[in-house]
């Protein structure tokens, strides 16, 4: 057996690459530079710095291309080696900025860029042809000097594009979005900052060089204890990454802005290459090698392999070196001698899977909003169709790719050691399950064998383990006549996490979640804990879990107690206390309302205060799902659609429940945008995809149940589906334009570009074309009048906005007219929704055959709207008169 590991051999071979030209790789700094990159280039090349620093301002005024075309040609031959990575990033951002502004910001159609357009046509080159000498030639010379087969600028931007601002000495794990800023930004927006630093922080925390190296050393010496320690360390690290990086809330970051700015800016630079994605970070490639992934046949698996070939050469060599000693093979060989080794390996696989489940949820939410608001195709080439939207395709590809990482986790078997009936149908189970990284709030699927011989699986919450670690306590509900336990399997989605850093904790709980409350209170980061329970006293079975740091306070009406203690609640908020509300839906609803009232007694902006607490992960809700609220109130889906307006009350249907989620918007960890886009529709499908297994037990929407959705008659299902489609398109347009204006209040060119993209993608077939005619059975004469009027006006409006953008210097004079365009399209969508809802109601009462008699009058209203409002938009810029 060799005495030197493959990774050690690699590190020796690249030890002279101190500037990271082949990609940053070292045992001490992992994938990061030994020191942050220089913030400026030498004076001879300072124009590159000057131009890249001006990009954010030029982007907002539509002047990127006209200014970059005037960039002088600079020769990089004498540029010192220590500046090459920075110069590579600067020129890469200039090139990406030109391409994005030319194609996505319509700068290619500006009168000022006519000469550049003519040059592209004359040479038959790409959009980068006009800046070939100024940008492309020096850029290529720089990456060739570094010994790279391509620029690899994507990878550099993920690990070196930061200015470290912390007082503490520099170390990769200290780099976060809170203490650093982007070294070379383009948009200089909150969304751009969050996108880049989400990947930077994951990579900065991941010991992708030292951990595999230590594992290889342990395998060479058969140091099983050392391997277990490393595997458990990595597993816990991935859980921390999920909680502190991936799942951290910043609800002011816009998925719509991301989809129309950063996501488009990071599209592939050259034909045949992959666009930017997290796969340009080395973490996933190293982890896949560690866990022994061998299957890459899926759509995303193939992208991963193509991306791997685009990484810097030293990273590619490291990934190959990790794969030379697969951990999975070693575990399979030695698990009989060391069962803990297999436990630790599976723990790592589960934690890694937990990361991707959370990532899956976030990708779905972002892709849904981005695609619905106008992004037709992902950087990875995922492009939907009328039958299968892009977000559904992304969801399928993510599931197939996740299956390729499966390691065949076996189920844990356990006998029933003890069972305590604590309250009503609640149980405290004590099982001989070995502790291998269980954290307070972890959920488990417990296979139950009942006395009558039947079997079922129920979800339970991890509560506590005995000091010796041989027995673990689980809290569960709805379990009667338990004879034994057939299996215990960890569920990757969390129920509720304790603070990630030391903090005081206040927990409001009913008895259904009291065990979990005690587990959170006993966590090492809970400095002082007050558990406010809604009951007379603490169940005797849980007395041993109360320690000196935990104070239990009982009150039969917690909501009233909170209002009495409003001043104290306000003091706790100011002092950084973490709040948890745990219980059944009715309890959480009451406590949530009481907390908002208590906050409102000392703060005029209740919504903003609650939003800040959620973003800081200091206000946490857990809903233990029980039966539906006892209500006779029911709604038809079309009643929800016509009564919902994202500006006022927001209602949705989820799993047969009608939810008024207006006050939930401010505390939704995914932000309020996606819920506003779905307002007025049935969100069951989206909720189950976005929340996965967590939807079975955890979900704040259960707190906001307003009634029950009446079932849709079969003959009205097609029209109802069409109504939802119209509602979502309209909501997407309204929300998108509101966000573009809000995020770019003074940037008229960006606003105009957002409007241009939205109306170009306006679904004519749905809104006034053949699809609408087929659903409503419109006669040929009315259809031709409606479609002809609307299409002509729409075409002229697109031309008008394009003409305005061609002369950005005078664009401010057309602000009112552009705003009128937005309002007209919004009003058209709302009008169409109102008419469709009325047709549905009448058809429900009169039968399916009445559509032909009901629809014409409504279509006549649509035609009148097209003549008066849409027709007013169909004028040239020269003769434009606001309607």
Provide a descriptive summary of the structure in words.
By secondary structure, this protein is α/β, with parallel strands linked by helices. It folds into five domains: 1-28 and 189-404, Methane Monooxygenase Hydroxylase, Chain G, domain 1; 37-161, no CATH class; 423-491, Elongation Factor Tu (Ef-tu), domain 3; 505-624, Nucleotide-binding domain of ferredoxin-NADP reductase (FNR) module (Rossmann fold); 714-882. Helices cover 49% and strands 11% of the residues. It is built from 33 helices and 17 strands. It has a six-stranded antiparallel β-sheet with strand order 3-4-7-6-5-8. Strands 11-10-9-12-13 form a five-stranded parallel β-sheet, sandwiched between helices. β9 (503-509), α19 (514-521) and β10 form a beta-alpha-beta unit. The longest helix is centred in the middle third of the chain and has 34 residues, at 339-372. The protein is globular, with a radius of gyration of 30 Å. The model is unreliable at 420-425, 694-698 and 876-883 (pLDDT under 50). One of its GO terms (molecular function) is indoleamine 2,3-dioxygenase activity. Residues 632-709 form the Cytochrome b5 heme-binding domain. Pfam families: Cyt-b5 (PF00173), IDO (PF01231).
What is the count of helical runs? 33
Structural class: alpha/beta
Q: Using the alpha-carbon principal axes, give the shape.
A: globular
Distance between the termini: 83 Å
The major pleated sheet works out as:
6 strands, antiparallel
Entry keywords:
883 residues, alpha/beta, Methane Monooxygenase Hydroxylase, Chain G, domain 1, Elongation Factor Tu (Ef-tu), domain 3, 6-stranded antiparallel beta sheet, 5-stranded parallel beta sheet, disordered C terminus
